[in-house]
Fold:
Amino acid sequence: MVLLIQHPGDRFASAIARQLFLAGCNPVIVTVDEIMTCKGFSLRMEDGRYASRILLRRGTEIDSASVSIVINLVQRMPVHFIQVFKKADAEYVYQEWRAIFIAWMKSFGDKLVFNPATPTALSGIDYSRPEWIQMATTSGLPVEPAEWDTQSGMHTVFNGSSQNPVMAVSCFNGQAYMFPNGMKVSDSLRDSCLQLQALSGIPLLTVRLWYWNETWHFLDAGVDTPVVQGIETLVQDITASVVQGGFASLNPQP
Amino acid sequence: MVLLCGIPTDNPLDRIADALEEKDIPFLVLNQHDYDAFYLSYRIDQGKTSGELAVGDRSVDLEDITGVYNRMTDIRAVPEYRGLNEDDPRLLRALRAHDMVTEWISICEARVVNHIRAMASNGSKPYQMMLIESFGFRTPASLITNEPGAVLAFRKQYGTLVYKSASGVRSIVQELDEEQLSGLDRITRCPVLFQQRLEGTNIRVHVVGRELFATIVTSNRIDYRYATRYGGDTRLETFALPPDIAARCIAVSEGLQLPVAGIDLLLTPGGDWYCFEANPSPGFSYFEEHTGQPIAAAIANYLANAGN
Structure:
Protein backbone atom coordinates (compact mmCIF):
# COMPACT_ATOMS: atom_id res chain seq x y z
CA MET A 1 0.00 0.00 0.00
CA VAL A 2 1.21 3.47 -0.86
CA LEU A 3 -0.12 5.83 1.77
CA LEU A 4 -0.48 9.51 0.86
CA ILE A 5 -1.32 11.85 3.73
CA GLN A 6 -2.32 15.36 2.82
CA HIS A 7 -4.42 18.41 3.57
CA PRO A 8 -7.85 18.62 1.93
CA GLY A 9 -7.65 20.36 -1.44
CA ASP A 10 -3.85 20.11 -1.77
CA ARG A 11 -3.29 20.37 -5.54
CA PHE A 12 0.26 19.03 -5.41
CA ALA A 13 -0.94 15.99 -3.51
CA SER A 14 -3.73 15.54 -6.05
CA ALA A 15 -1.23 15.65 -8.90
CA ILE A 16 0.89 12.95 -7.22
CA ALA A 17 -2.16 10.84 -6.46
CA ARG A 18 -3.38 11.06 -10.06
CA GLN A 19 -0.01 9.95 -11.37
CA LEU A 20 0.20 7.10 -8.89
CA PHE A 21 -3.21 5.85 -10.01
CA LEU A 22 -2.09 6.02 -13.64
CA ALA A 23 0.97 3.97 -12.71
CA GLY A 24 -1.25 1.31 -11.14
CA CYS A 25 -0.19 2.03 -7.53
CA ASN A 26 -3.70 2.70 -6.22
CA PRO A 27 -2.56 4.85 -3.31
CA VAL A 28 -4.65 5.18 -0.19
CA ILE A 29 -5.24 8.90 0.20
CA VAL A 30 -5.98 10.19 3.65
CA THR A 31 -6.35 13.72 4.93
CA VAL A 32 -4.87 14.68 8.27
CA ASP A 33 -8.38 15.74 9.28
CA GLU A 34 -9.54 12.15 8.81
CA ILE A 35 -6.72 10.90 11.00
CA MET A 36 -7.68 13.23 13.83
CA THR A 37 -11.33 12.25 13.68
CA CYS A 38 -10.81 8.53 13.09
CA LYS A 39 -12.89 5.85 14.75
CA GLY A 40 -9.92 3.87 15.92
CA PHE A 41 -6.24 4.69 16.35
CA SER A 42 -3.63 2.38 17.84
CA LEU A 43 0.14 2.61 17.80
CA ARG A 44 2.03 -0.09 19.70
CA MET A 45 5.68 0.27 20.60
CA GLU A 46 7.34 -2.88 21.94
CA ASP A 47 11.08 -3.53 22.10
CA GLY A 48 11.85 -1.42 19.06
CA ARG A 49 8.97 -2.81 16.99
CA TYR A 50 6.15 -0.49 15.98
CA ALA A 51 2.74 -1.43 14.68
CA SER A 52 -0.18 0.86 13.98
CA ARG A 53 -3.74 0.44 12.89
CA ILE A 54 -6.18 3.20 12.02
CA LEU A 55 -9.84 2.79 11.19
CA LEU A 56 -11.22 5.82 9.39
CA ARG A 57 -14.83 6.88 9.70
CA ARG A 58 -15.41 5.97 6.05
CA GLY A 59 -14.44 2.38 6.84
CA THR A 60 -10.92 2.36 5.39
CA GLU A 61 -8.35 0.59 7.53
CA ILE A 62 -4.66 1.52 7.48
CA ASP A 63 -2.54 -1.26 8.89
CA SER A 64 1.15 -0.42 9.07
CA ALA A 65 2.04 -4.00 8.15
CA SER A 66 0.56 -3.51 4.71
CA VAL A 67 2.05 -0.06 4.09
CA SER A 68 5.15 -0.07 1.89
CA ILE A 69 5.57 3.64 1.26
CA VAL A 70 4.38 6.79 3.03
CA ILE A 71 4.23 10.20 1.42
CA ASN A 72 3.67 12.90 4.04
CA LEU A 73 2.54 16.29 2.79
CA VAL A 74 1.08 17.49 6.10
CA GLN A 75 2.39 20.86 7.29
CA ARG A 76 0.08 21.66 10.20
CA MET A 77 -2.52 20.05 12.39
CA PRO A 78 -6.04 21.28 11.66
CA VAL A 79 -7.67 23.22 14.46
CA HIS A 80 -11.31 23.43 13.49
CA PHE A 81 -12.35 20.08 14.86
CA ILE A 82 -11.00 20.78 18.36
CA GLN A 83 -13.42 23.66 18.80
CA VAL A 84 -15.92 21.19 20.21
CA PHE A 85 -13.74 20.95 23.31
CA LYS A 86 -13.55 23.46 26.17
CA LYS A 87 -10.73 25.97 25.58
CA ALA A 88 -8.26 24.39 28.03
CA ASP A 89 -8.98 20.89 26.71
CA ALA A 90 -8.76 22.03 23.08
CA GLU A 91 -5.14 23.12 23.51
CA TYR A 92 -4.34 19.80 25.21
CA VAL A 93 -6.00 17.76 22.44
CA TYR A 94 -4.22 19.76 19.76
CA GLN A 95 -0.79 19.20 21.36
CA GLU A 96 -1.54 15.51 21.94
CA TRP A 97 -2.54 14.88 18.35
CA ARG A 98 0.49 16.74 17.12
CA ALA A 99 2.79 14.62 19.28
CA ILE A 100 1.01 11.44 18.22
CA PHE A 101 1.14 12.28 14.51
CA ILE A 102 4.88 12.90 14.73
CA ALA A 103 5.42 9.58 16.48
CA TRP A 104 3.19 7.75 14.00
CA MET A 105 5.22 9.11 11.09
CA LYS A 106 8.45 8.15 12.86
CA SER A 107 7.15 4.62 13.39
CA PHE A 108 7.20 4.00 9.64
CA GLY A 109 10.98 4.32 9.57
CA ASP A 110 12.40 4.10 6.06
CA LYS A 111 8.97 3.53 4.54
CA LEU A 112 8.37 7.25 4.89
CA VAL A 113 10.05 8.68 1.82
CA PHE A 114 9.19 12.34 2.17
CA ASN A 115 8.88 14.48 4.15
CA PRO A 116 9.65 13.21 7.67
CA ALA A 117 7.79 14.79 10.58
CA THR A 118 9.87 16.22 13.40
CA PRO A 119 8.75 17.89 16.62
CA THR A 120 9.31 21.37 15.14
CA ALA A 121 7.85 20.77 11.70
CA LEU A 122 5.32 18.23 10.53
CA SER A 123 6.96 18.19 7.11
CA GLY A 124 10.69 18.59 7.08
CA ILE A 125 12.61 20.73 9.57
CA ASP A 126 11.70 24.16 10.85
CA TYR A 127 14.93 26.09 10.26
CA SER A 128 15.22 29.71 11.30
CA ARG A 129 15.92 32.41 8.75
CA PRO A 130 19.55 32.79 9.90
CA GLU A 131 20.00 29.04 9.58
CA TRP A 132 18.72 29.04 6.03
CA ILE A 133 21.04 31.90 5.19
CA GLN A 134 24.02 30.06 6.66
CA MET A 135 23.20 26.84 4.83
CA ALA A 136 22.58 28.67 1.56
CA THR A 137 25.97 30.34 1.85
CA THR A 138 27.65 27.00 2.62
CA SER A 139 25.96 25.53 -0.44
CA GLY A 140 27.49 28.20 -2.66
CA LEU A 141 24.34 30.22 -3.31
CA PRO A 142 24.71 34.01 -3.51
CA VAL A 143 23.18 35.46 -0.36
CA GLU A 144 22.80 39.12 0.42
CA PRO A 145 23.97 40.36 3.82
CA ALA A 146 21.17 40.37 6.38
CA GLU A 147 20.93 42.34 9.61
CA TRP A 148 18.81 41.99 12.69
CA ASP A 149 18.30 44.21 15.68
CA THR A 150 15.75 44.04 18.44
CA GLN A 151 14.53 47.56 17.84
CA SER A 152 13.75 47.45 14.16
CA GLY A 153 13.66 43.79 13.16
CA MET A 154 15.35 42.20 10.17
CA HIS A 155 16.58 43.92 7.00
CA THR A 156 18.54 42.83 3.99
CA VAL A 157 20.80 44.77 1.70
CA PHE A 158 18.55 44.57 -1.32
CA ASN A 159 17.83 47.29 -3.79
CA GLY A 160 15.26 45.41 -5.79
CA SER A 161 11.49 45.41 -5.75
CA SER A 162 8.58 43.04 -6.03
CA GLN A 163 9.07 43.29 -9.80
CA ASN A 164 12.34 41.38 -9.69
CA PRO A 165 11.99 37.91 -11.24
CA VAL A 166 11.59 35.00 -8.84
CA MET A 167 12.36 31.40 -9.66
CA ALA A 168 11.58 28.23 -7.72
CA VAL A 169 13.87 25.20 -7.86
CA SER A 170 12.33 22.03 -6.45
CA CYS A 171 14.92 19.44 -5.46
CA PHE A 172 14.15 15.76 -5.10
CA ASN A 173 16.21 12.60 -5.37
CA GLY A 174 19.23 14.30 -6.88
CA GLN A 175 17.26 16.21 -9.52
CA ALA A 176 16.38 19.89 -9.75
CA TYR A 177 13.18 21.18 -11.37
CA MET A 178 12.93 24.83 -12.31
CA PHE A 179 9.73 26.86 -12.25
CA PRO A 180 8.45 28.71 -14.18
CA ASN A 181 8.82 25.94 -16.66
CA GLY A 182 11.60 26.42 -19.16
CA MET A 183 13.85 28.50 -16.90
CA LYS A 184 17.50 27.78 -17.46
CA VAL A 185 20.12 28.05 -14.78
CA SER A 186 23.82 27.42 -14.69
CA ASP A 187 25.03 24.01 -13.59
CA SER A 188 26.69 25.57 -10.57
CA LEU A 189 23.47 27.26 -9.43
CA ARG A 190 21.54 24.05 -9.89
CA ASP A 191 24.20 22.10 -7.99
CA SER A 192 24.12 24.66 -5.17
CA CYS A 193 20.36 24.20 -4.83
CA LEU A 194 20.81 20.43 -4.66
CA GLN A 195 23.55 20.91 -2.08
CA LEU A 196 21.23 23.03 0.02
CA GLN A 197 18.57 20.34 -0.17
CA ALA A 198 21.07 17.70 0.93
CA LEU A 199 22.39 19.91 3.72
CA SER A 200 18.88 20.61 4.99
CA GLY A 201 18.00 16.93 5.29
CA ILE A 202 14.61 17.61 3.69
CA PRO A 203 13.94 15.11 0.87
CA LEU A 204 11.60 17.35 -1.16
CA LEU A 205 12.69 20.97 -0.87
CA THR A 206 11.89 24.02 -2.95
CA VAL A 207 14.49 26.77 -3.07
CA ARG A 208 13.33 30.20 -4.18
CA LEU A 209 15.72 32.60 -5.84
CA TRP A 210 15.33 36.17 -6.95
CA TYR A 211 17.15 38.00 -9.66
CA TRP A 212 18.86 41.33 -9.16
CA ASN A 213 22.16 42.88 -9.98
CA GLU A 214 22.46 40.34 -12.82
CA THR A 215 22.62 37.38 -10.47
CA TRP A 216 20.20 34.91 -8.91
CA HIS A 217 20.23 35.25 -5.11
CA PHE A 218 18.86 33.00 -2.41
CA LEU A 219 15.44 34.18 -1.23
CA ASP A 220 14.10 31.38 0.94
CA ALA A 221 13.43 27.63 1.00
CA GLY A 222 10.61 25.40 2.18
CA VAL A 223 8.45 22.37 1.59
CA ASP A 224 5.76 24.08 -0.50
CA THR A 225 6.02 22.90 -4.08
CA PRO A 226 4.63 25.28 -6.73
CA VAL A 227 1.74 23.78 -8.64
CA VAL A 228 2.37 25.44 -11.97
CA GLN A 229 2.95 24.48 -15.55
CA GLY A 230 5.86 22.09 -15.67
CA ILE A 231 5.10 20.38 -12.37
CA GLU A 232 4.21 17.22 -14.31
CA THR A 233 7.85 16.22 -14.76
CA LEU A 234 8.54 16.38 -11.03
CA VAL A 235 5.35 14.47 -10.26
CA GLN A 236 6.18 11.80 -12.85
CA ASP A 237 9.67 11.38 -11.41
CA ILE A 238 8.27 11.11 -7.88
CA THR A 239 5.87 8.44 -9.08
CA ALA A 240 8.61 6.56 -10.91
CA SER A 241 10.70 6.60 -7.72
CA VAL A 242 7.80 5.27 -5.70
CA VAL A 243 7.08 2.52 -8.21
CA GLN A 244 10.69 1.48 -8.66
CA GLY A 245 11.82 2.18 -5.11
CA GLY A 246 15.00 3.67 -6.54
CA PHE A 247 15.82 6.45 -4.12
CA ALA A 248 17.24 6.99 -0.67
CA SER A 249 15.00 8.56 1.96
CA LEU A 250 16.65 10.98 4.28
CA ASN A 251 15.91 10.94 7.99
CA PRO A 252 16.98 14.25 9.44
CA GLN A 253 18.29 14.47 12.98
CA PRO A 254 16.05 16.28 15.43
CA MET B 1 31.42 35.59 28.58
CA VAL B 2 28.44 33.39 29.33
CA LEU B 3 24.87 34.39 28.55
CA LEU B 4 22.01 33.25 30.78
CA CYS B 5 18.54 33.64 29.29
CA GLY B 6 15.37 33.33 31.32
CA ILE B 7 13.90 34.34 34.65
CA PRO B 8 16.64 35.28 37.18
CA THR B 9 14.81 33.69 40.11
CA ASP B 10 14.43 30.38 38.28
CA ASN B 11 16.27 27.92 40.51
CA PRO B 12 18.52 26.25 37.93
CA LEU B 13 19.44 29.57 36.30
CA ASP B 14 20.10 31.14 39.67
CA ARG B 15 22.40 28.27 40.68
CA ILE B 16 24.40 28.55 37.50
CA ALA B 17 24.75 32.30 38.02
CA ASP B 18 26.12 31.58 41.53
CA ALA B 19 28.52 28.97 40.15
CA LEU B 20 29.79 31.40 37.50
CA GLU B 21 30.34 34.06 40.16
CA GLU B 22 32.27 31.64 42.36
CA LYS B 23 34.52 30.80 39.43
CA ASP B 24 34.92 34.46 38.41
CA ILE B 25 33.47 33.73 35.00
CA PRO B 26 31.80 36.85 33.59
CA PHE B 27 28.19 36.51 32.55
CA LEU B 28 25.18 38.49 31.42
CA VAL B 29 21.55 37.78 32.15
CA LEU B 30 18.83 38.30 29.56
CA ASN B 31 15.94 38.85 31.90
CA GLN B 32 12.59 37.87 30.45
CA HIS B 33 10.84 40.21 32.85
CA ASP B 34 12.04 43.13 30.73
CA TYR B 35 12.73 42.66 27.03
CA ASP B 36 13.29 46.40 26.67
CA ALA B 37 16.35 46.21 28.91
CA PHE B 38 18.59 44.62 26.30
CA TYR B 39 19.55 45.28 22.71
CA LEU B 40 20.76 42.64 20.27
CA SER B 41 22.05 43.39 16.81
CA TYR B 42 23.86 41.13 14.39
CA ARG B 43 24.71 40.75 10.74
CA ILE B 44 25.35 37.73 8.54
CA ASP B 45 27.60 38.46 5.60
CA GLN B 46 29.32 35.83 3.46
CA GLY B 47 28.52 33.26 6.12
CA LYS B 48 30.14 35.20 8.94
CA THR B 49 28.10 36.43 11.88
CA SER B 50 29.05 39.52 13.84
CA GLY B 51 27.23 41.75 16.25
CA GLU B 52 26.77 42.84 19.81
CA LEU B 53 24.55 42.39 22.78
CA ALA B 54 23.94 45.18 25.29
CA VAL B 55 22.30 44.53 28.65
CA GLY B 56 21.88 47.67 30.73
CA ASP B 57 25.21 49.48 30.59
CA ARG B 58 27.22 46.38 29.66
CA SER B 59 27.82 45.22 26.14
CA VAL B 60 29.66 42.30 24.56
CA ASP B 61 30.69 41.29 21.07
CA LEU B 62 28.71 38.21 20.15
CA GLU B 63 31.84 36.31 19.21
CA ASP B 64 33.07 36.70 22.80
CA ILE B 65 30.14 34.69 24.13
CA THR B 66 31.35 31.15 24.82
CA GLY B 67 28.18 29.69 26.24
CA VAL B 68 24.43 30.28 26.29
CA TYR B 69 22.13 28.79 28.91
CA ASN B 70 18.60 28.97 27.56
CA ARG B 71 15.86 28.66 30.19
CA MET B 72 13.47 31.03 28.45
CA THR B 73 9.83 30.32 28.95
CA ASP B 74 6.76 31.31 26.93
CA ILE B 75 6.55 35.11 27.05
CA ARG B 76 2.82 35.01 27.69
CA ALA B 77 3.51 33.17 30.95
CA VAL B 78 5.78 35.99 32.20
CA PRO B 79 3.82 38.28 34.57
CA GLU B 80 4.78 41.50 32.77
CA TYR B 81 3.35 40.22 29.50
CA ARG B 82 0.61 37.87 30.65
CA GLY B 83 -2.83 38.99 29.58
CA LEU B 84 -1.65 41.70 27.18
CA ASN B 85 -3.61 42.02 23.96
CA GLU B 86 -1.93 40.46 20.95
CA ASP B 87 -1.49 43.91 19.37
CA ASP B 88 -0.09 45.54 22.52
CA PRO B 89 3.17 47.31 21.55
CA ARG B 90 4.91 45.98 24.69
CA LEU B 91 4.05 42.40 23.78
CA LEU B 92 4.95 42.88 20.13
CA ARG B 93 8.35 44.34 21.04
CA ALA B 94 8.97 41.53 23.48
CA LEU B 95 7.97 38.88 20.94
CA ARG B 96 10.27 40.39 18.35
CA ALA B 97 13.19 40.49 20.79
CA HIS B 98 12.44 36.95 21.97
CA ASP B 99 12.32 35.57 18.44
CA MET B 100 15.47 37.41 17.49
CA VAL B 101 17.39 36.03 20.45
CA THR B 102 16.11 32.54 19.72
CA GLU B 103 17.13 32.79 16.08
CA TRP B 104 20.57 34.11 16.92
CA ILE B 105 21.05 31.23 19.37
CA SER B 106 20.26 28.80 16.53
CA ILE B 107 23.39 29.91 14.63
CA CYS B 108 25.74 31.15 17.31
CA GLU B 109 29.04 29.36 17.69
CA ALA B 110 28.89 29.30 21.48
CA ARG B 111 28.05 26.19 23.44
CA VAL B 112 24.28 26.22 23.82
CA VAL B 113 22.33 24.51 26.57
CA ASN B 114 20.16 23.52 24.84
CA HIS B 115 19.25 24.26 21.22
CA ILE B 116 15.52 24.71 20.81
CA ARG B 117 15.13 22.20 18.02
CA ALA B 118 16.94 19.57 20.06
CA MET B 119 14.75 20.29 23.08
CA ALA B 120 11.65 19.80 20.96
CA SER B 121 12.15 16.01 20.81
CA ASN B 122 10.66 15.90 24.31
CA GLY B 123 7.50 17.46 22.90
CA SER B 124 6.51 14.05 21.55
CA LYS B 125 7.38 11.43 24.14
CA PRO B 126 6.77 8.40 21.93
CA TYR B 127 8.88 10.02 19.21
CA GLN B 128 11.70 10.59 21.66
CA MET B 129 11.39 7.02 22.94
CA MET B 130 12.00 5.74 19.42
CA LEU B 131 15.15 7.85 19.25
CA ILE B 132 16.31 6.65 22.67
CA GLU B 133 15.88 3.03 21.62
CA SER B 134 18.30 3.61 18.77
CA PHE B 135 21.00 4.24 21.41
CA GLY B 136 20.59 0.86 23.04
CA PHE B 137 18.09 1.52 25.82
CA ARG B 138 14.90 -0.40 26.30
CA THR B 139 11.73 1.60 26.82
CA PRO B 140 8.48 0.43 28.41
CA ALA B 141 5.99 -1.32 26.14
CA SER B 142 3.61 1.44 25.05
CA LEU B 143 0.27 1.85 23.39
CA ILE B 144 -1.24 5.06 22.09
CA THR B 145 -4.90 4.55 21.40
CA ASN B 146 -8.44 5.88 21.53
CA GLU B 147 -9.91 2.37 21.64
CA PRO B 148 -10.93 1.03 25.07
CA GLY B 149 -10.77 -2.53 23.76
CA ALA B 150 -7.15 -2.08 22.76
CA VAL B 151 -6.32 -0.83 26.24
CA LEU B 152 -7.96 -3.85 27.87
CA ALA B 153 -6.05 -6.22 25.58
CA PHE B 154 -2.79 -4.41 26.33
CA ARG B 155 -3.52 -4.58 30.05
CA LYS B 156 -4.21 -8.29 29.79
CA GLN B 157 -0.82 -8.74 28.15
CA TYR B 158 1.28 -6.46 30.36
CA GLY B 159 -0.57 -6.23 33.64
CA THR B 160 -0.82 -2.95 35.50
CA LEU B 161 -0.64 0.06 33.23
CA VAL B 162 0.20 3.71 33.72
CA TYR B 163 -0.88 6.55 31.49
CA LYS B 164 0.47 9.99 30.68
CA SER B 165 0.35 12.62 27.97
CA ALA B 166 2.22 12.08 24.72
CA SER B 167 3.09 15.75 24.35
CA GLY B 168 4.31 16.77 27.76
CA VAL B 169 1.28 18.95 28.46
CA ARG B 170 -0.36 17.88 31.76
CA SER B 171 2.32 15.21 32.04
CA ILE B 172 1.86 13.47 35.38
CA VAL B 173 2.23 9.69 35.30
CA GLN B 174 -0.75 7.94 36.89
CA GLU B 175 -1.78 4.36 37.33
CA LEU B 176 -4.75 3.04 35.39
CA ASP B 177 -6.72 1.91 38.41
CA GLU B 178 -10.26 0.53 38.70
CA GLU B 179 -11.79 3.97 38.92
CA GLN B 180 -10.05 5.08 35.71
CA LEU B 181 -11.01 1.84 33.98
CA SER B 182 -14.67 2.51 34.57
CA GLY B 183 -14.32 5.76 32.59
CA LEU B 184 -12.19 4.33 29.79
CA ASP B 185 -14.72 5.33 27.14
CA ARG B 186 -13.49 8.90 27.49
CA ILE B 187 -10.37 8.05 25.48
CA THR B 188 -12.48 7.85 22.32
CA ARG B 189 -12.30 11.65 22.26
CA CYS B 190 -8.49 11.74 22.09
CA PRO B 191 -5.84 8.98 22.11
CA VAL B 192 -3.89 8.46 25.31
CA LEU B 193 -0.41 7.05 25.93
CA PHE B 194 -0.47 3.89 28.08
CA GLN B 195 2.62 2.04 29.25
CA GLN B 196 3.37 -1.14 31.15
CA ARG B 197 4.04 -0.29 34.76
CA LEU B 198 7.58 -1.33 35.57
CA GLU B 199 8.77 -2.08 39.09
CA GLY B 200 12.27 -1.19 40.08
CA THR B 201 14.58 1.58 41.13
CA ASN B 202 14.30 5.04 39.59
CA ILE B 203 17.60 6.62 38.67
CA ARG B 204 17.98 10.13 37.30
CA VAL B 205 21.16 10.81 35.39
CA HIS B 206 22.21 14.38 34.69
CA VAL B 207 24.56 14.51 31.74
CA VAL B 208 26.74 17.61 31.33
CA GLY B 209 28.95 17.22 28.30
CA ARG B 210 30.80 14.03 29.15
CA GLU B 211 30.24 14.28 32.91
CA LEU B 212 27.54 12.27 34.61
CA PHE B 213 25.72 12.72 37.90
CA ALA B 214 23.48 9.79 38.80
CA THR B 215 20.92 9.87 41.60
CA ILE B 216 18.91 6.98 42.95
CA VAL B 217 15.36 8.06 43.74
CA THR B 218 13.24 6.21 46.27
CA SER B 219 9.59 7.24 46.40
CA ASN B 220 6.25 5.80 47.39
CA ARG B 221 4.52 7.52 44.43
CA ILE B 222 4.59 6.51 40.74
CA ASP B 223 5.73 9.95 39.62
CA TYR B 224 8.28 11.00 42.24
CA ARG B 225 8.33 14.54 40.84
CA TYR B 226 4.89 15.12 42.29
CA ALA B 227 5.17 12.85 45.33
CA THR B 228 4.56 15.50 47.99
CA ARG B 229 1.60 16.91 46.03
CA TYR B 230 -0.08 13.53 46.42
CA GLY B 231 0.91 12.89 50.01
CA GLY B 232 4.00 10.84 49.29
CA ASP B 233 7.69 11.31 49.99
CA THR B 234 10.95 10.89 48.14
CA ARG B 235 14.59 10.19 49.05
CA LEU B 236 17.57 10.92 46.81
CA GLU B 237 21.13 9.55 47.00
CA THR B 238 24.15 9.61 44.74
CA PHE B 239 24.53 6.44 42.67
CA ALA B 240 27.41 4.89 40.71
CA LEU B 241 26.31 3.92 37.20
CA PRO B 242 27.76 0.82 35.53
CA PRO B 243 30.18 1.93 32.77
CA ASP B 244 28.09 0.56 29.91
CA ILE B 245 24.97 2.38 31.13
CA ALA B 246 26.99 5.56 31.57
CA ALA B 247 28.21 5.23 27.99
CA ARG B 248 24.65 4.78 26.78
CA CYS B 249 23.55 7.91 28.62
CA ILE B 250 26.27 9.92 26.93
CA ALA B 251 25.24 8.41 23.59
CA VAL B 252 21.64 9.53 24.21
CA SER B 253 22.78 13.02 25.16
CA GLU B 254 25.00 13.34 22.10
CA GLY B 255 22.54 11.66 19.76
CA LEU B 256 19.70 13.94 20.82
CA GLN B 257 22.10 16.92 20.71
CA LEU B 258 21.38 17.74 24.35
CA PRO B 259 24.73 18.43 26.03
CA VAL B 260 22.82 18.89 29.27
CA ALA B 261 20.05 16.38 29.81
CA GLY B 262 18.17 14.74 32.65
CA ILE B 263 17.78 11.09 31.70
CA ASP B 264 15.22 9.04 33.60
CA LEU B 265 16.15 5.38 34.01
CA LEU B 266 14.70 2.42 35.81
CA LEU B 267 16.58 -0.66 37.00
CA THR B 268 14.35 -3.68 37.45
CA PRO B 269 14.95 -6.32 40.14
CA GLY B 270 16.00 -8.62 37.29
CA GLY B 271 18.80 -6.24 36.27
CA ASP B 272 17.17 -4.78 33.14
CA TRP B 273 17.68 -1.10 32.39
CA TYR B 274 14.89 0.99 30.93
CA CYS B 275 14.87 4.62 29.86
CA PHE B 276 11.70 6.69 30.11
CA GLU B 277 12.82 9.98 28.66
CA ALA B 278 15.56 12.57 28.27
CA ASN B 279 14.54 15.87 29.80
CA PRO B 280 16.03 18.69 27.73
CA SER B 281 15.76 21.38 30.41
CA PRO B 282 16.23 19.46 33.65
CA GLY B 283 15.37 21.09 36.96
CA PHE B 284 18.66 19.79 38.37
CA SER B 285 18.59 22.08 41.41
CA TYR B 286 16.24 19.69 43.26
CA PHE B 287 18.78 16.89 42.88
CA GLU B 288 21.75 19.07 43.70
CA GLU B 289 20.12 20.30 46.91
CA HIS B 290 19.53 16.76 48.15
CA THR B 291 22.79 15.12 47.06
CA GLY B 292 25.39 17.89 46.91
CA GLN B 293 26.29 16.91 43.36
CA PRO B 294 28.05 19.89 41.71
CA ILE B 295 25.79 19.96 38.64
CA ALA B 296 25.55 23.75 38.41
CA ALA B 297 29.33 24.03 38.58
CA ALA B 298 29.68 21.46 35.80
CA ILE B 299 27.24 23.37 33.61
CA ALA B 300 29.03 26.64 34.36
CA ASN B 301 32.33 25.04 33.30
CA TYR B 302 30.75 23.67 30.16
CA LEU B 303 29.32 27.06 29.21
CA ALA B 304 32.66 28.75 29.85
CA ASN B 305 34.24 26.15 27.57
CA ALA B 306 36.41 24.93 30.38
CA GLY B 307 36.92 21.37 31.62
CA ASN B 308 35.17 18.98 29.22
Notes: Residues 158 and 170 of chain A are 24 Å apart (CA to CA).
